[in-house]
What we know:
mainly alpha; globular; 6 helices
Amino acid sequence: MGHGGDVIHELTTDHREVEExxxxxxxxxxxxxxxxxxxxxVTIELVRHSVAEEMHLYPxxxxxxPDGDSLADKELxxxxxxxxxxxxxxxxxxxxxxxxxxxxxxxxxxxxxVADEENNLFPRLRQAxxxxxxxxxxxxxRTAKKTAPTRPHPASPDKPPANKLLAPGAGxxxxxxxxxxxxxxxx
Length: 187
């Protein structure tokens, strides 16, 4: 399953990639330094994915679905919870007793969120929006991921227009920090 296509295909592809990283993490022994590299890679992908959803998917959910406001608000709360967990993980090393607890919590949060999106939100959106709009949203999401932050910023705005204005700047700073530190290069 490659990237491209409509917004649902694009985001589902992201979900499969993150799940594959979770499986690689779970296969490594506790304390293994490669687990930190995987956590960094998972964080990069989840933050980029979340920001793109917040910029484009959730406004579409609000527009197309009759209960879109409450659905989008629930998804944003899921993102907020996961982002706080990722922020805590950012300061942990694999030998920290909290490291595995936090990652287990994050994987559970993300798996529940993904199941909800794929079993509830995506099918409803596919029914409510036309194919052309879903294709356009897919392109917007792919573009947003290219400039999105790569680190958790729990205090950042998650709704338009503020998120659309601030995310690219935060993304540029995050990618510079990543380049200088080598973070995410082994993913």
